[in-house]
Amino acid sequence: SALTGIGESVAETGTVVVIQGPRFSTRAESLWFRAAGAHTVNMTLYPEVPLAAELNIGTVNLSFVTDGDAGLAPVAGAAPSGEELSAGLVFARLREAQPRIVVAIEAIIRALPADYAGRELIDPAEVAAVLARTV
Fold first, then answer.
1. What is the rounded distance in angstroms from the CA atom of residue 108 to the CA atom of residue 1?
2. Centroid of chain to Cα 101
3. Most buried in the list 8, 31, 85, 105, measured by CB within 10 Å?
4. Phi, psi dihedrals of residue 42, rounded to the nearest 5°
């Protein structure tokens, strides 16, 4: 994997719960999501990924975990570490991780074969017909 080659940990598969955001899950939601088999909670994989698939456009999910799950926290409103969950915490962690994220994106791009094509889920002629329509 491109990411293990640069020392990043990788989960090859997982179940994502997509919520409307921006917001943090409640403690009850987090426990419910985990009981349902979720590994992560995200706000940006839907509808983008299914819409891209409908156009036969390949996608890669690169997720960076910015905060621990509220369901693991020792008290409501805190991260598992005990820190207060806040947008500031998320933005600070993203700023700190930005160099790693850029290196990861570069590694993924380098790993793509020159002849890469997304999975063909819909006949390309049908995709072209939809895209040719005007609103």
1. 9
2. 13
3. 85
4. -140, 160
What does the pLDDT look like over 87-124, one tens digit per residue? 888 899 999 999 999 999 999 999 999 999 888 899 99
Rounded to a whole number of angstroms, the distance between the first and last alpha carbons of the chain is 42
| Model pLDDT for residues 42-82, shown as the tens digit of each residue | 888 888 989 999 888 989 888 888 877 666 666 665 566 66
Residue 19: closest CA among 4, 5, 33: 33
Sign of CA dihedral 91, 17, 105, 131: negative
Tokens representing residue 102 in the block: 């850029």
Assigned token pair, 4: 């293990």
Cross-strand pairs, 25: none
Three-class DSSP category at 42: strand
If phi > 0 it is left, if psi is from -120 to 50 it is alpha, else beta; for residue 7 that is: left
- Entry pTM: 0.76
Q: Residue 48 contacts by C-beta under 8 Å, 6 or more apart in sequence?
A: 59
Helix (H, G, I), strand (E, B) or coil at 82: coil
